Structure of Ion-translocating oxidoreductase complex subunit G:
Amino acid sequence: MLGQSISRNSLLLALFAVCTTALIAGTFLFTKDKITLQKRMAEERALLEIVPRSRHDNSMLDDTLDAGPDADGLGLAEGRKIYLARAQGQVVAAIIPAVAPDGYSGVIDMIVGVNRDGSIAGVRVLAHRETPGLGDKIDLKKSDWIMDFDGRSLQNPEQEGWAVKKDKGVFDQFTGATITPRAVVSATFRVLQFVEANRNTLFGEQELGPTGDKS
């Protein structure tokens, strides 16, 4: 009797596990496309904050170049995408992924939009672990500090000006938190240097396909 009871309970548990697994798998498959769509829409919103629809006529999410750890100055630990904004086939801006490795509480994940003329279209911080109320002012939701990069370039200011004011640069630091803005300023400057070194690839007259191959 005891053996039969154990066998019956084991069978019930196994059946329950199978049903639960099937339910979870079914839920995942049912919501997978919806999750993918929502993620794509959120990603597109971040890009459109930097390069609005009025400036381009392509889908930036589908017009990309690959960037990885070998992309000098970007600080990437893994493969990422560079997004291209086009108007009538010409690239008007590129949105570059970058990582500031020297934040106060760790790495700061960013994207930097750079216009064809070398000026900054916008900078956004995607993820960070900086101190709430201090370093988190790099987040546009917390402060408009990040907007000071708009329109800047390698010549505006000159190289020595690409620093926080405490280091004799032109960018404000935060009270009680200098390390965080210093890291973002440095990472943004490195992106501008990367763009300048790769202008032909990013903004060349030759058309670039969705994967970055020249056509």
